[in-house]
Amino acid sequence: MNSAVTHIIRFIFFVLVQVLVLNQLEIGYGVQIMVYPLYLLLLPVEMNVFSLMLVAFGMGLTIDSMSDTYGLHASSLLAFAFFRPIVFKMFAPRDGYDHLLETNIYNLGFNWFIRVFGLLLLIHHFWFFALEMFKMNEIFNILQKSIVSGIVSFLICILMQYLFIRNKKENEV
After folding, report:
1. 8-state DSSP, 23
2. What is the pLDDT of residues 127-158, one digit of tens each?
3. How much is the pLDDT for 150?
4. Overall number of domains in the chain
5. Please, how many CA atoms are within 13 Å of residue 152, restricted to the half-sphere of its CB?
6. At what angle do helices 72-90 and 110-133 cross, to 10 degrees?
7. By residue range, what is the domain housing residue 106?
8. Which H/E stretch holds residue 145?
9. Which of 111, 24, 125, 134 is CA-nearest to residue 79?
């Protein structure tokens, strides 16, 4: 399937899953499952920052408009998109990124995924909950929600990749 079509389908899928399913779940302990940042991670490595931030803003605004969150998701995704190239450079493989491969758990490995996506998801969640509470005297509550929600979201993102993304290396053998 064409790369652009794949990204459009993923965009719609992540928005609908977030808005119709995950935003409706009440787990407790302040846990909010947010898997839509995975969409930004799966975008091509060579995508420039302006385009990445434009896509992030569009996705965040779409989720905000359907969730009545007044820009929390858009702002958090913009922070994710801003830090993505920086974190990608920090954890770049020795030979650099292969621009033909997608940045998923299969192509770059589980350790890379844990470090890169874990850090970006933590930044996203911290920004989200800091804006939601907007009180620095609640820093421990913000950290607790960010870490617990981040761990649950991270595990679901791993599960989603194993369920919905094909391992191209396995198919070649």
Report:
1. G
2. 999 999 988 888 999 999 999 999 999 999 99
3. 97
4. 1
5. 17
6. 150
7. 3-172
8. helix 139-164
9. 125
